[in-house]
Amino acid sequence: MTTPDHGDAVPAAEPAQTAQAAHAGHTAERAAVTERRLHPVTPFRRAWAPITVLAGWAVHDPNATQQQLERLTTTVLLLGLAVLVPVAGLYGFLSWWFTHFAVTDTELRIRTGLLFRRTAHIRLERIQAVDVSRPLLARVAGVAKLRIDVVGADDKDELAFLGEREARALRAELLARAAGFAPETAREVGEAPAHELLRVPPRALALSLALTGATWGAWCAAVVVPTVLWLTTHNLWTVLATALPLLGAAGASSAGRFAGEFDWKVGESPDGLRIDHGLLDRTHETVPPGRVQTVRIVEPLLWRRLGWVRVELDVAGSANSVLVPVAPRPVAESVVARVLPGVTVPQTLSRPPRRARWCVPVWWRGHRLAVTDTVFATRHGLLRRRLSLVPHAKVQSVRLSQGPWQRLWRLAEVHVDTGADKTVTARLRDAEEAARLLHAQAESSRTSRRDARPDRWMT
Amino acid sequence: METGSPDETGIPGAELVWRGLQPALIRVRRLLVVVWTAVLAVAVGLPLGLLVGPVWAAFALAPLALGAWGWRLVERNWRSWRYTERADDLLISRGVLWREETVVPYGRMQLVEVTSGPVERRFGLAHVQLHTAAAATDATIPGLDPAEAERLRDRLTELGEARSAGL
């Protein structure tokens, strides 16, 4: 990767992959690259914004709103609309008109901005994941959003909206180019065939949510807190002001999660992992091979009897972190084996020495560690067990740390930092073992980096 | 107890050449300790002495004692800092009470930064900071001779290019 480059017109925090175009070179090249526009429905996507602002104001200050509304006459209202609608429409149209994107051999270029011009060049071999998402309204309109995850990408770098078929074609083209197909053929390669690894049945998903403590906690809070408030204050507004957010949170943690994780499918294709999910808003994510930095197998207490686990993954620059919302352990482990090729989930993990109980009473038993020839795996938690796996090739740096109390008990911690900004820590290890671990980890990371797959996975 | 230091555990790399920091760093840090101690002592002693009674101004001795402790700590901490360039990675070891050892492979380096503040420049010092794709990587070497800092930067960049690896 290149170092961040502080262009003049670009905000200083601009990531490495998006750099200001060199204007001279750009104009010369423009002829060769066909620039495209987003779907014409795009201007309407911000249509709700002024309405939300008004609604927010009304909720914030109901009395003032009523006074203002009484003063309004039909003429004023019509005049206001006559000004507001064309201005908003013009803004939407212009921002759509001035947004272009183009795919070159090595980059995806997005040019946008009416007053503040912004040009993002995203290098295709740096793609960490490609997401096509179709929110409910977009599905009605037959459009989709396409988002390229690269390190440091932000929401401005997503292409919203594209026609559904166009989004699919573009994703296939981007992946083909990123994979290293010749530029001439990239457009014709089409979508790589996928085969399904796993599908989560709705019953299992519903049961798993019912067996999650957080869901019940949220509902209990949503019922208990407003009741108590009503009994103590008898003020309807206070109760409503607390009840609504609590109910919202409870709904999001149960119904919202159910809708989001509904019909969860994990598939495998030569272009990498495909994750499709959603009831109302559909999301299709593609993670090319070798992009997964860490995998976590989470085992909540109530799921243990059923032998179910949840699998989470970290990809640099990607917002999604769930790989499998719920699955029986053997199935989940087979998926992990496909996601991290050559990795088997270690079954036996070593405990810290007994004296660790003086550093972390009771919970010390939960901290386990296993290092195989492919992964560094640690587990923590007694009730809710979390097993984190880091392939040796994904280690960015290794650190050993030891505080004074740990030194007294001859214990130390080993931290393994990965590119997705996640650190996996082996806590409460014997100090000498930790020192050996530090050096062994540095060594095995070096050797496995050497035979890691190239960024362009088809070359 | 010297747990974790490579020269005792028979770990590969025990024969490495470790480099320490410039003694000027002790002076800089001691200067900071003195300045802060003085400020704190005045801030504690003056109001107490004027408002409550001259005897109470003795509380200003507490920051002074802390300062004296800090004076000694600075040297111990300085002594604990060391780094070495191995074939494929940079090893930084530091800390007395809170020990920390960091291994950063050259191929993972995204950016090497040499900075030197006004005080550091006055004492002829610079510090080098390495960044990897993981924000948690905390690899800073303070108190280097500017020439050494530049040598280190150039060497790290050169080695980083030769061994470059993606995410």
Automatic annotation (TrEMBL), chain A:
Stretches with biased composition (Basic and acidic residues): 446-459
Origin, by domain of life?
Bacteria
Q: Where is the composition biased (Low complexity)?
A: 9-25
What residues form the membrane-spanning segments? 76-98
Is this entry keyworded Iron?
A: no
Pinpoint the YdbS-like PH domain residues.
96-173, 270-336, 364-438
User: Keywords on this record?
Assistant: Membrane, Transmembrane, Transmembrane helix
Annotated region Disordered: the residues are 1-26, 439-459
Task: Supply the Pfam families for this chain.
Answer: bPH_2 (PF03703)
Name listed for the protein in its UniProt record: YdbS-like PH domain-containing protein
From TrEMBL, chain B:
Q: Does the keyword Isomerase apply?
A: no
Q: Which residues cross the membrane?
A: 31-50, 56-74
| A Pfam family hit | bPH_2
Q: Which domain of life is it from?
A: Bacteria
Q: Which UniProt keywords apply?
A: Membrane, Transmembrane, Transmembrane helix
Chain ranges of the YdbS-like PH domain = 78-156
User: Does the record bear Transmembrane in its keywords?
Assistant: yes
Return the PANTHER family for the record.
Answer: TRANSMEMBRANE PROTEIN-RELATED, UPF0699 TRANSMEMBRANE PROTEIN YDBS
**What protein am I looking at?**
Membrane protein
